[in-house]
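[INFO] parsing input record for 3-oxoacyl-[acyl-carrier-protein] reductase MabA
[DEBUG] input buffer:
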Amino acid sequence: MILDNFRVDGRVAVVTGAGRGIGAAAALGLAEAGADVLIAARTADQLEDVAGKIRALGRRVVTVAADLSDLDAIAGLAETAAAELGRIDIVVNNVGGTAPNTFLTTSPGYLERAFHFNVATAHALTRAAVPHMLTAGGGSVVNISSMMGRTPGRGYLAYGTAKAALAHWTRLAATDLAPRIRVNAIAVGSVLTSALDVVASQPAIKETMETATPLRRLGEPWEIAAGIVYLSSPAGGYITGKVLEIDGGIEQPNLDLGLPDL
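[DEBUG] output buffer:
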């Protein structure tokens, strides 16, 4: 009986950054739980690979290859999902990220771009999706934040600041959109996605990250997807305005990126 509450049958999800990694895992997890999905990313070939797996689960899927840093393009996903799939119930704001940088080479423009890519994109898509979600009776928004939004880490000033802003945007949006739309976030730890390919290929750095994590390993994309399904489903129906930490228990990343001292 309780497992039925993790189902999202008959619902429609929009997932950004869904060509690989956490976004792809989220799209597949939601499809396995019963949702039809619009998936968006920059690379069409990656989207088609994910779409094939979704179709194999018996779910409908729409792919949109676009530059998701373009606010008009990302907002347009809402209209496409509503037109092609009939409704919107779930939004997963996964697109984002910013490369590490030193303090003195983090220009104001670099900081603004980090905020744009990690926060403004989430706001643009959610704002466009809300009218459709209300028409469908309500829904759930899940934002992908990071442990770097709550812990210090050398070289992550722009990224960490943007993810901290996204976490608080989550709390504020949840207040504005309650009670019909729930808004939550996941603070992700070190997860084995393509973004960590360089780290995973260097045993010393990988070991440092694992040692800094109480569970002594890096996370897997499906583990984040499980949290997304939970927050999107009736099982998470009494949760809003919260940041779920899925990070292996890490409190201090303690990762030496090899950035020069001042």
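[INFO] DSSP finds eight helices and seven strands in the chain.
[INFO] shutting down worker
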